[in-house]
Amino acid sequence: MKSKTGVETNHYETLGVAESATQGQVKQAYRKLAKQFHPDSQNKEATHEKIAQVNAAYEVLGDAKERQRYDTERQLLAKAQRQARVNRTVDSQNHYRKRRSANASNTTTIEQWMRGVFNPTDRLIGKIINPLKAEVRSLSADPFDDELMEAFQAYLEDCQESLEKAKAKFKSMPNPASVASGAANLYYCLNQLEDGLEEIERFTYTYDDSYLHTGQELFRISAGLRKDAKAEIKAVL
Question: Domain containing 212: what range?
Fold first, then answer.
């Protein structure tokens, strides 16, 4: 959702103030940044784009009515995104239950499923989850550095490719009834990763840290589901 207030851009982060900041604190922060990034300053970061971002942020936050409208839109956007994630999870659960019921009579052996589905899917999940911490640490050196951001986006593209392969592998063979619980956790793990990647990709074009933090939390949940799946499947082997 976009508006003249630029709801997809975090103006608070641009000005370096908390969402609870007073109008006086907002004005003070703007003055400091306007001076710092003025074209006549000696600051190497004083680009036209940077001062334009600062001005745009103050145009919204410096006006009490515009700020209130902006805050309301941000809250509505966050609520809509949370609801969309809940709806996707519910749809995924229903789809999984239907598929599991339809394949209840299938005679796939555990050995076949482990070799053809679980092991390759688990490896692909690892390729997505394991590098995240190091990739975020590398980008945090300077998120506005083009080369660092391009490297981070390349990682996300690899993740998306691995995720699609993992989803295809998981669907390639019905799971035996004895590993149904573990297979369900693996399925939900893939769904959480999909949502997590979506959030992190939003961060790359909005520079809003809240998207990155949400994505990292979804990855953490995915890692937990992956661990649970392994433990449950190991218990029946």
Answer: 103-236
Report the domain count for the chain: 2
Question: Which amino acid appears at position 34 of this protein?
Answer: A
Whole-angstrom Cα distance, residue 129 to residue 224?
11
Closest CA to 122 of 180, 193, 217: 193
pTM, whole model, 2 decimals? 0.60
User: Are residues 58 and 156 part of one domain?
Assistant: no
CA-CA distances (angstroms) from residue 219 to 30, 103, 195, 226? 35, 29, 9, 10
CA distance 152 to 87: 29
Is the separation of the CB atoms in 199 and 211 below 8 Å? yes
CA atoms within 13 A on the CB side of 124: 23
Distances (CA, A) of 85 to 100, 157, 196: 22, 21, 10
Amino acid identity, residue 208?
A: D
- Give pLDDT, residue 236: 86
What's CA 201's distance to the chain center, in Å?
Answer: 6
Q: What is the pLDDT of residues 110-133, one digit of tens each?
A: 999 999 999 999 999 999 999 999
Span 63-102, pLDDT tens digits: 999 999 898 888 888 788 778 777 777 776 666 666 655 5
